[in-house]
Amino acid sequence: MEVLKIATAGSVDDGKSTLIGRLLYDTKSLTTDKLEAIEKTSKQKGYDYLDFSLATDGLVAEREQGITIDVAHIYFSTANKSYIIADTPGHVEYTRNMVTGASTSQAAIILIDARKGVIEQTNRHFFINNLLRIKEVVIAINKMDLVDFSEEKYNAIKVDFEELMSKRDYKDQKITFIPVSALKGDNVVNKSINMPWYDGETLLEHLEGLNMAAVSNVGTPRFPVQYVVRPKTDEHHDFRGFAGKVYGGELSVGDEVIALPSQTKSKIKEIYFYNKKYQTAARRSSVTITLEDEINLSRGDMLVKAGDLPTVEKQFTATISWMDSKKLMTGNKYVVQHGVNKVLAKVDNIHHKIRPDYSGIDEEVDGLGMNDIAKVTFKLNKPIFYDAFVDHRTNGSFILIDTQSNNTVGAGFIAP
User: Fold this and answer.
1) Which of 143, 144, 274, 299 lies 20 to 30 angstroms, CA to CA, from 376?
2) What are the start-end ranges of the H helices in 241-337?
């Protein structure tokens, strides 16, 4: 079954957690004990409705403050698709959380409170979706019940958001506007009788109809080697396979491939999953590949199709989302983890900080603080095999690890 990963974003009290809870409730994805807990807590709070935000806000601090702090992953399925929703906080101090949640998503839902319209936080949410090259973005204009289901209000917000859309640099996004009331259930799973002027799909109908190939940034086949398989048995004493996961497109038996960094050519002889042979390894499948020639490959090396090489360099420039309280400074050293490959890197140049509300850049930068986003150049102690993030989301992204604490301190997206 196809799996669609969705990132959500919304400002405080826009109703994001309620929208997700409503999706779970109306698709009958809530367990009996979870539903009973929601009913009990809603009554204790004196509500005459079910507080669906309780289905997602798991931390005590979240429930007490009524805001989302942590990134929660919510799973549910229909007859057509399985869904993973990254429920991310939308406030400025949690920018790093939103980047983390959206970095692996193929679609996004941005909530706008119908009473407030497009606000500064909306700019930030759309900027991050643009930065992460998410192709399918739904603008859910929520709380339509609080503006009397006004078509005029809905259209005014659409006009304001379309002005924001003109500022983006990634034009391959499809933007869909849907008026909803998460609390009442209008246009979330079921069609609203209160907005006869809207003849589009409900939120779930739209998600169900998305073409996975169209919303995925597939790129070209990349096969980072995770493990060299050499069984110590008499039966398979000559077996030498390379285990890993296929990113991008497919790899098939007979494909001519190049091993990096050696640049040695060979052809794929066999593809295994456990003890079964396959003719083709599909995208995102974990397999073991054997080659027709004896090639020296080890963990961190990569197999790619001949004629379709990535960039092989000891330097790159990337957009960095900084996640640590300790500043990133020019000259600092970090470990770059790019797929399974780890290399030592030095910050060569901080070009500028990017204001994530489309208001411009700051060129006078002495370092990056938590939640800052900036363009940075790194020099590495050995080459890596990378693509630009816009062309290949997996092979164009990486994380930064502090050499002393071993903490993940930043996420990066390699520039063209």
Assistant:
1) 299
2) none
The residue to which tokens 């102690």 are assigned: 381
- Fold match, 222-305 / 311-414: yes
Terminal C-alpha separation, the chain:
33
Amino acid at 62: E
Total residues belonging to the chain: 416
Give every CB contact of residue 380 below 8 A, 6+ residues apart in sequence: 313, 314, 315, 316, 336, 343, 344, 345
Q: Please provide the CATH number assigned to the domain covering 311-414.
A: 2.40.30.10
If the chain, 416 residues long, is cut into consecutive pieces of 10 residues, what is the mean pLDDT of each piece? Answer: 86 81 86 78 73 60 44 84 82 71 88 92 88 92 96 97 88 92 93 96 95 79 94 76 92 96 94 92 93 92 94 96 94 96 96 87 90 95 94 93 94 94
CATH architecture of 2-215: 3-Layer(aba) Sandwich (3.40)
Q: What percent of the chain has pLDDT over 90?
A: 58
As a CATH number, domain 222-305 is 2.40.30.10
Q: At what angle do helices 95-102 and 120-131 cross, to 10 degrees?
A: 40
For residue 360, count CB atoms less than 10 angstroms from its CB and return exposed for 0-12, middle for 13-18, buried for 19 or more: exposed
